[in-house]
Amino acid sequence: MQTKIEKISPLSALALNIIEEVPESAVDFLSFRERLSYANISRPDKRVEWIAARIAINKALDCISLPYPGFFKDENGKSHPMDGYGYVSLSHTKGIAAAIFHKEMPVGIDLDYIREKVVRLGPKFLDHSEMDFLNNCPELYTTAWSAKESIFKCQGKRGVSLKNNIILEEFSKEDKVIKGRIYGSEYSDHHYTVKVEKEKDVIMTYTIW
Ligand SMILES: CC(C)(COP(=O)(O)OP(=O)(O)OC[C@H]1O[C@@H](n2cnc3c(N)ncnc32)[C@H](O)[C@@H]1OP(=O)(O)O)[C@@H](O)C(=O)NCCC(=O)NCCS
User: Domain 4'-phosphopantetheinyl transferase: where (predicted)?
Assistant: First the structure.
């Protein structure tokens, strides 16, 4: 994937950040609390991923002319702006980080490498009806996993199971948008639209409105 910053609308933007070496000065924009969190991450690869996600959200905010407010995590691990305005979601994995912001609506974003083994893990996160149209295809399974993670992050509460509470409508490799729904939980009947982007062996999904 390539680094990008995209204004989705006047209210929303996303950024994808290829992870490179981070100079110490790169953390200057973080809030005091965030610098403490950052200092407590011991694994060097996780530190770099963590900061790359914050650099991505900083760039996304800049693109819609908003200052970086600092973010705190709630009891579920979901980040929220310290100033109480807007919604954010972050994802990071080996070599890449992404972030999305919306001024008014909850958002979710997820990045995943396409892996063969995801097909074997299918029964852990998919309903039978979904496996019927995914055809044992690693790309489609990764897309389904990622879309469910984006929906999960958008709603943000633990206790929502990817397998039992998030269901996707049938989609194929050509589809750039997937529909999904949360059911059978106290957050039931929320409908989601998820954008899919693929580059080489990486799938990125994010919720749109
Ligand atoms: C929390 C979870 C969504 C994180 O996803 P991940 O693929 O491990 O990691 P990502 O890099 O994509 O995302 C990490 C970011 O998610 C965000 N996050 C964590 N918990 C969250 C929550 N409850 N809601 C929204 N966002 C959350 C955080 O910002 C985190 O980044 P940070 O630690 O740097 O702040 C994931 O671990 C999870 O719990 N998934 C759903 C549960 C499930 O059913 N899993 C098993 C099925 S087999």
Answer: 106-205
